[in-house]
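ok trying this again, last paste got cut off
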Amino acid sequence: MPEAALHLGSGKVRELYSLDDERLLLVASDRISTFDVVLPTDIPDKGRVLTGLSGFWFARTREICENHLLALRSDGRSTECRRLEMLPIECVVRGYLAGSGWKDYTATGTVCGHELPAGLTESAELPEPIFTPATKATTGHDENIDREQAAELVGTDRLAEVEWVAIALYRHAAEHAGQRGILIADTKFEFGVDDEGRLVLGDEALTPDSSRFWPADEYAPGGSQPSFDKQFVRDYCETLGWDKTPPGPELPDSVVTGTRARYVEAFEKLTGISFDAYMADPEVVVR
């Protein structure tokens, strides 16, 4: 690294460093997690896809919400960013009924307090995008919560702002992605607050790790969908009889290759930039 950086901690995917009192360095590794367990097999270039796509979206959504991005470094996986006080909730927006949202709906007819029409099928498009917050679990799984529970964690006024911004970001990205052949079924945002109390988008944005990306030309509600995200790895792990506790299973070469190809394809479809061009000049995504 070109300057001194103090390692602060490790997440499932990212390493976090302090550069100074105002800046952090996020380094996206090639690790992949499923069911909140980090697997022992890396996906080559995955961290660069996450960093490049996040940079692309950060540069194009500033008018909706400020973000933490200061600079992308030449390795394509490191982001200089502003320090924030992060909010203690995951901010999920769903445009389609999948994952834990589908499970909640089949059990109760609701998702995070949202009453949904009867008779929806798995992967059905929702009448309108919905905001479905979740806890940030330090161990185990995040848990879906309703707006009242979220308000207890961040305050009523801040939650209203977060909900409006998250849905606006989702709508903007979904329109862009739809024009490029990708449906964004759902996505997770993380927000923080800067020194002046302003809401700021942080962490990552609209990547294959934080979103479900479906090929629009293969969309068929009524079951699970093919995807450009880590569902490919989840599906493989589901075939193993694994109990979803550490240690996670090794991935075969076919799953590694297939996952990398899906991540790179999502990057290129959404940005309109070849991955090789990004590798040569990471800042191409923010111009």
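PB: full thing came through this time. The CA atoms of residues 128 and 241 lie 36 Å apart.
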